[in-house]
# Entry
Amino acid sequence: MRVFELTTMGRVSLTNPAGAVVATLLAQPKRLGVLVYLAVAAPDDLVRRDVLCELFWPDAPPDRARSSLRQALAFLRRALGEYAIITRGDDEVGLDATRVRCDAVVLRTQLMTRDSERARVLALYTGPFMVGFVIDDVPRFERWIEDARSAFTRDVGETAIDLARASLTVGETSAVAWARRACDVLPFDERALVVLLQALDASGDQSGALRSYDVVVRQLAESLEVEPAPETVAVAQAIRSRAALPPGVSEPAKRALPEDEVIAPASLQLAPIERFPLTATLASAPTTSGAVEAPTTLRHPWRWAFAVAVVAVAVSWFARPSERADTLPSRSAANGRLSTVGERVLVAPFVNETGDSTLDAVGRMAADWITEGFSRIDGVAVVPGTTLLAMERARRAGDYGVPVRLDAMAQKTGATLVV
# Structure
């Protein structure tokens, strides 16, 4: 069947089955608006005529409004074909989706499908819904357009964020492209910025990550007069600290080892999970008594460096071959090392209780460094830091179904080791 193509993402367009623009209908904004509403608001249903009259002729007397609607429907039948417009009795009107295909309907349907299909369909989003489309004196229809535009923008942006996170988790280079797409669609959403920073950092482009961060910070200040969230600042500071390292000092711990003790990536192993009981709670999660527990609480500034050093030594120790075969169980008979297959690590943030707010980001930076250290261990998966940030923000927004204790969070994220 020959199908008309109605484009609503970006500037509105309508082409006939031969690919030619239907200029006569595009020159009639109100009648084009009726077509768009029938296509998008009720793709599988009919709309009452009185609803259309209130949307497009709100100030006209009922009889005159219904007459104007009949003329508009007759015009649509002439432009699209007699059977494109469906009616049921004198009160309901609809559009035959098999004769007029709308990109917004396809996009909305495909966004609810599998990731591979969602990736392909994002190409349909060429701009905000009905951008630049204006009809005078139809306030309810204008509000409908604004609501639909916001919903499409949100759904497309969040889909791009999800695809970027999924690509980043499995180490795919497409993470950067999806993250940039998310930032284009949601320029002021810091979730998109964080995943872009992480994707660029993972690809080795720390300078590009910092440039992107500076651009968004400037946009937030100029357009919204706000500063980025502490979590976003912490991610950028961690990247900035790594980018500032002089050449040849990117792996100081490994270089400090004698040459005969340097461990190849394939031999790095974890300590037994039994050494780390899952009993801590997140810093931002209130307990039933109203107090706040933290996985790591440092009350004096000098302890920050000490604690980070201790954990860094622990990570390094996990990565080295055991020297005491009689004290560690589950040793492989083939190589005398602990098995790392299937391990997944959750790194909890440190908590600043020094009273000095300038040190707030240090704990997250430390957690980021430790997370990066674990990610270098062969056979070990690390729970992305964005997962913790998302849970924390969800709790702040009032979602009390998010796990509070780290053991529950470990179960939710599939972690077998908590640091």
User: Anything to note?
Assistant: The chain is about 50% helix and 10% strand. The longest helix spans residues 139-169. The CA atoms of residues 111 and 155 lie 8 Å apart.
